[in-house]
Design a protein that fits this description.
Blueprint lengths: L8 E7 L6 H9 L6 E7 L6 H9 L5 E5 L6 H11 L4 E4 L5 E2 L3 H12 L3 E3 L2 E4 L6 E2 L5 H7 L12 E3 H6 L9 H9 L5 E3 L5 E4 L10 H18 L6 H12 L5 H16 L5 H17 L23 H17 L1
Parallel strand pairs: 1-2, 1-4, 2-3, 6-10, 7-11
Antiparallel strand pairs: 4-9, 5-11, 6-9, 7-8
Helix pairs in contact: 7-8, 8-9, 9-10, 10-11
GO molecular function: hexosyltransferase activity
Protein name: Glycosyltransferase 2-like domain-containing protein
Length: 333
């Protein structure tokens, strides 16, 4: 595993009850084209056979360490513990149910060094549950900043960076959107670069997305959006912030408020850097909000001219889905 003429990279894998997939994730790291790595699995209080399986398969492996937390503390604490245990000059992260493509570490380290950046990220390709699409991301830091005004701008498992950055800026414990919270800060403090190919395979499965703590997640995510907007140098009124909050969290928003939301997105889009990819991302966010609206009926389709110009059409496939939603809502009223 070791080649000492290359910088050591620490791969941190937080894990909670990951018996089904953890060995696949570790094996994807062991198969990397880059040699000088250490693997740190941080078990976050698993109650299944995760620890037993890891010890059985990797206990004698050079450069592998299992760190056990006494109780379930959450992903933020587990990642922070991994960083504190890391010996590498660089660290990267991987979720316990995801896979790293073979050249992931080699590719990101080269990009980081070539661009003299602090952190490198990449798109993620989904697989499982009949899903096989790529979550593309912006190709430059200004684009990542712009997308962070609304959502997490890149997938957490794709993160690769200098260890000292994460030592100085830990994940926020107790936050359910700890990745988004961290990037909303670090994007405005350090230099980021992007590898324009999916270096992570993100597994979709029935247990991969937690639906618990929904209200806390929505509340924290709203606060992160507000913080990111401020970091971008923009100031919104209290009424505009309420439009932003309600449209993302309320499934019964008035058409007038949706109109206001479209114009708010248009304003955010017009400030600073923008390109076609970012415009499409903002359009997708507005479409997602419309899909959540239980009272957006078929007549709403014909009132769409009041929406800001860039938010009146979503492409044929999405329009069909939206129309079906509207028809269902109409007959359920």
């Amino acid at each position: 595993m070791r080649s000492y003429n290359l910088p050591l990279v620490s791969v941190i894998i937080p894990c909670f009850n990951g018996e089904e997939y953890i060995c696949d994730s570790v094996d994807s790291v062991l198969g990397q084209s880059y040699d000088n790595i250490e693997i740190i699995v941080v078990d976050d209080g698993s109650t299944d056979r995760t620890i037993e399986l890891i010890k059985e398969k990797y206990h004698a492996l050079d450069g592998f360490r299992l760190v056990q937390l006494a109780s379930n503390c959450g992903a933020a604490v587990a990642r922070n513990k991994g960083v504190s245990e890391a010996r590498g000059e660089y660290v990267c992260f991987l979720d316990a149910d995801d896979l790293a493509v073979r050249h992931r570490i080699e590719c990101q380290l080269k990009k980081l060094l070539d661009t003299e950046s602090n952190i490198c990220v990449s798109p993620l390709k989904n697989f499982g549950l009949s899903k096989n699409h790529v979550n593309w991301i912006s190709l430059n830091q200004e684009g990542l900043k712009k997308i962070s005004l609304l959502k997490c701008p890149f997938p957490q498992p794709s993160v690769f960076g200098e260890r000292w950055v994460f030592q100085s800026n830990p994940y926020l414990a107790g936050c359910y959107a700890e990745d988004y919270e961290l990037w909303s800060r670090l994007l405005f403090k350090y230099k980021f670069c992007v590898v324009d190919e999916p270096l992570i395979l993100g597994r979709n499965h029935s247990g991969s997305a937690s639906r618990s703590h929904k209200e806390k997640i929505e509340s924290q995510t709203h606060e992160i959006r507000v913080s990111s907007i401020k970091n971008y140098g923009l100031r919104l009124s209290n009424s505009e912030l309420e439009v932003l909050r309600s449209c993302y969290t309320n499934k019964f928003v008035s058409h007038d408020r949706l109109v206001s939301f479209s114009h708010l997105l248009s304003f955010l889009l017009s400030e600073g850097y923008s390109d076609k990819f970012i415009s499409n991302q903002y359009n997708d966010q507005f479409y997602w909000v419309l899909r959540q609206q239980c009272n957006y009926d078929i007549f709403g389709v014909y009132r769409r001219l009041r929406f800001s110009k860039g938010f009146r059409w979503f492409g044929l496939g999405k329009e069909v889905k939206l129309l079906l939603n509207c028809i269902v809502n109409f007959f359920l009223r």
